[in-house]
């Protein structure tokens, strides 16, 4: 009789122990250990901070936030690309128990209104504009009342809970904004020695919520995944351990801070190891990333595969000395094997690691290490992280499947979120009675415990590292007065991994064009949610019971476009 295959279950190492401090307390200890080390370099802002300086500025900002009358547990939104202000907000809010709410800079009016109201943000920090996005303009559209109101006393019908709006300024530049306070003025109002900051800090627990990140929802509205100090501080630490980070390392972070990728795999991996954070720019630019790696002698680099491809294929790539690089993380979406080989060979990233996870699990559950053989690094997402358990189960029976068989990836341990903000029902759907987070991802585990993500149970599309749920786009397009029915699917794409495709049935007697649909989306939903391909059809492929067969729509588009599924890690 053949031996029974082991079950697809693994438990991570239990050493070193978990950090049981709050983020603020841990950061203060690190600042005491490496006070003169560089903590943060924001290249595009030409700003540098040692750990001691970053600590003083974070304390000053924490004091200023208390000065606004904000109290532990209240929610403060940040709507911005990468900058020093973002890191200061991350640290200052943590120090005084405020919950930082990450808002995607691609959000438009309807999305930001929903997010701010869903979690009841009392204050919002925003950049004024970025490229074609006018953030202050969008807020004025939502809250025209602010134009005649003093800062800190805001009141608007559509944003009833929001009292403070702060814009990230360059001191001394640009006209004042009615209703808004300048970030530089807010910071100047704080006192780095304010005794209230340590007093409040002593009352905090590491299991308190500290961060809310929105993830697209299958039911049409984003869900606010709520994470604690313990969640993200430990995850950041063990991610850095996999990369073997030390105070000598300098990590270039072109990935966004509003994602876990930037703020946990990036800043918290650095801050828990005394390493240096390097922002090459506010938004991703391949040339500026290459320049920053060379100029700052970065030893580590993060990115989604699309970013690494853009850097490798840049016409000036050969000009740059990248020999300081050794490690980093590629994550966000599966990596084509060929890309991984080029990154190792041409960017000196011999110790680059692959990470896998989801926002709801802080995010990383599995990661390869610097020692993982290249073959495993390009075909798997590594093994279980310390202090976590993972298993792969039959989606129907819930039984753990034998190794090598596919099933749903589940994880349990310190990393599992506090829950979805204000949504007990959806929290219970995601986390079972035994504490297992059901990810909706299909995976296999091999004999050595390496995990491979092979697909998704849920109908999610990952476009360039952004998670998009077709249902959300469908709900939005249904609101078009001439649309009778719509189905959205993901189709393979060489650059972004997947692109969105909408099949639209117009109402009888109505003529609709692709341009009509795109114009309807413009300025109302994020650019990455606007379908790349739009087709008008009379009906959808159905089962005999009337269930729409999305896989057939996808297959038809793959054939029409002549694209193919990529072999991925």
Count every helix, treating DSSP H or I runs of 4 or more residues as helices.
Answer: 17
* Overall radius of gyration: 23 Å
Average pLDDT reading: 94
The CATH architecture of the largest domain can be named as 3-Layer(aba) Sandwich
- Cα distance spanning the termini: 34 Å
Q: Give the amount of beta strand, in percent.
A: 15-25%
Ranges where pLDDT stays below 50 over 5 or more residues in a row are none
Largest sheet: 9 strands, mixed
**Class from secondary-structure proportions:** alpha/beta
CATH superfamily of the largest domain: ANL, N-terminal domain
Q: How many domains comprise the coordinates? A: 3
Q: For the largest beta sheet, what order do the strands appear in spatially?
A: 3-2-14-13-15-16-17-18-19
Count the beta strands.
29
Query: Could you please say which CATH topology of the largest domain applies here?
Result: Rossmann fold
SSE blueprint and pairings:
Elements: E1 9-11, H1 23-33, E2 38-42, E3 47-50, H2 51-67, E4 75-79, H3 84-95, E5 99-102, H4 109-119, E6 121-126, E7 129-130, E8 133-134, H5 135-142, E9 164-167, E10 181-182, H6 183-188, H7 196-202, E11 209-215, E12 223-228, H8 229-242, E13 250-252, H9 260-271, E14 276-279, H10 286-295, E15 300-303, H11 305-312, E16 327-330, H12 337-346, E17 351-357, E18 364-367, H13 374-379, E19 383-384, E20 388-393, E21 407-413, E22 419-420, H14 424-430, E23 437-445, E24 451-456, E25 461-463, E26 466-468, H15 470-478, E27 483-493, E28 497-506, H16 514-521, E29 533-536, H17 550-561
Parallel strand pairs: 2-14, 4-5, 4-6, 5-11, 6-9, 9-10, 13-14, 13-15, 15-16, 16-17, 28-29
Antiparallel strand pairs: 1-20, 2-3, 7-8, 11-12, 12-22, 17-18, 18-19, 20-21, 21-23, 23-24, 25-26, 27-28
